[in-house]
Design goal:
Elements lengths: L1 H28 L2 H8 L3 H7 L3 H10 L13 H15 L4 H10 L5 H4 L3 H17 L9 H23 L4 H12 L6 H4 L8 H20 L1
Helix pairs in contact: 1-2, 1-4, 1-6, 5-8, 5-10, 5-12, 8-9, 9-10
Length: about 220
């Protein structure tokens, strides 16, 4: 068991180091040597988990879609908003997510290691389909089409925020994006109940982080 735990920690250390290097330098300029140095592991340990730089990039991209900050809500559309707002809050602070943005936008490398964008579109379409089944979404809305529109807008918001404000206004831009798109998607009775405030992501993250402490207190 101890050996298995060490392997998990080593793999995580390698992924986090790779993400930091990819985020800073991009895929082409990143080197295994620098990733090894940052991870503090041997070459053998790295290659035990990842057999190439491309495999490392794929590993980083697979880390983009997580349920870590997902909380069930009465409205499925609120869950979608929360996913977007927490991502906007976390992205500037987490190298793993920053690396995902840079790798996904790498036109030359995409044929080698792929992109996180299709997975995001699929996740969005699935949530919108569930919301439509619950009557939260207007009847004419096609979830797959709306997911693609949202993905394109979200990618644009990321790069404009980075270029104009160094990510500092990403929360506000994401809030504005939802405020512009949701009236074309959500049923009016649902729309008025959705919380799309710029600080929504920060509040959801704080709520998630409080939960383990509350559970520990209750069971301790």
């Amino acid at each position: 068991m101890a050996q298995q735990e060490r392997a998990v920690r080593t793999r995580r250390a390698v992924l986090e180091a790779a993400a930091a290097v990819f985020a800073e330098r991009g895929y082409a300029a990143a080197t295994i040597a620098e990733i090894l140095q940052r991870a503090g592991v041997t070459k053998g340990a790295l290659y035990f988990h990842f057999d190439s730089k491309a495999a490392l990039a794929q590993g980083v991209l697979q880390e983009q879609i997580t349920t870590e900050y997902h909380l069930p809500r009465e409205l499925k559309l609120q869950e979608w908003v929360d996913a977007g707002m927490t991502l906007a809050k976390r992205l500037p602070q987490e190298p793993m997510l920053l690396a995902g943005v840079r790798l996904s936008a790498d036109l030359q490398g995409r044929d080698v290691f792929g992109s996180a964008w299709p997975a995001w579109a699929e996740l969005t379409a699935r949530v919108l389909e569930e919301a439509k089944e619950r009557g939260e979404v207007l009847s004419h809305v096609v979830p797959e089409e709306s997911a693609q529109v949202f993905l394109g807008a979200w990618i644009g918001v990321q790069f404009v925020s980075q270029g104009v404000a160094g990510w500092t206004d990403l929360d506000a831009r994401m809030s504005a994006l939802f405020n512009h798109l949701l009236p074309a998607i959500a049923a009016p009775s649902v729309l008025v109940r959705l919380d799309t405030a710029p600080d929504r992501g920060a509040r959801v993250i704080a709520e998630v982080r409080r939960r383990p402490k509350a559970l520990a207190t209750a069971t301790g």
